[in-house]
Amino acid sequence: MTNRATDVVIIGGGAAGAGAAYYLGQRGIKVTILERESIGSKASGFNAGGLNPLEGHGWPEPLQPMALQSFNLHQDLWGSLPGKTGIDYHGRLSSIIKVALDENELPELRETLQIFNNAPEPGFSAEWLEREDVLALEPRVTPHALAGVRAVGNGALDGLEFTEALGVAAQQVGAEVVTGTAVGLRLGNGRVEAVVTDDGEIPCGALLIAAGPWCRNAEPWLDIAIPVDPLKGQIIRMKPDGPGLDHELTGGGSSMYNKPDGLIWCGATEEEAGFDLSLTDEARESVTAKAMRLMPSLTNAEVALHTACLRPVTPDWLPIVGQAPGWENVYICTGGQKKGILLGPAMSKGIAEIIADGETGISLDGCDPARFNS
Question: What is the pTM of this model?
Fold first, then answer.
């Protein structure tokens, strides 16, 4: 590795890091991405790719404005990134059918109906479905379904290809991607002067830590708390005996994601398992059983791929985005939890503006890194 100085070193090549490099590069700021494996090789590359800015499990209310800003940024990006990079990551508007298989799932349907029909921005709506309506839209749903809701206005994409497109676009505006692992920092007078890697140093004017749950590695280097921990998720990609889905489909504890290649992604688990990425029979059996209960024809489906990833989750489920407390030139961008791909553009654009201008128009309420260091 050379010791070429750069304006900003970004540790981490996921959606947050690659996105920040792209937005910084657009401003003429020289960036070096330090990534241990490859762009999108962690959670950003193995997520289901759903973009629902209105709701979700573990959904703190302060996220709503950022989520909608990020959703709009996504639509801007999928109108430009594929053309710039040659990577079609299938960014598109989509719909979701939520099905109740038990009485206790009906309140969630009513909540979704209300949320989508009272969305703070246009483009979202929902309608109530009786059993026959559900089966008319998707005849393979179990005939034991009680009712459903069809919600429109969401988006979807391929997470790996999206992150790769951000990486390519970042390099097109001057970023360099270096393969390596950060092992420490060279410090001086309240500043980071260089990132120490397993193959030398990279002198820098500023440091952005965007390494997902591995951000904790920097805690002893900076003597601050970065409480982001891994939430393991396993997804089963299934090849149905017939066509793929036209909608996302949820119910009975199952979530299924439609893909342009006809595969159906089913998942995902939520496991506090540290940094264990092993694929388990228990997860495969649980995910497939729930999917088959919702759509019995999947009994004849082939398991095409079984994957696992580690989502970065903070104690309050809000991201950590901003200047590191006590440091003049250190910044953090992590903690997108299960919504990392959705929130990626807003998080990365927000931190890029903070690095460049000291402020941002992105809503980052509740995301200040200092909240864990008071």
Answer: 0.97
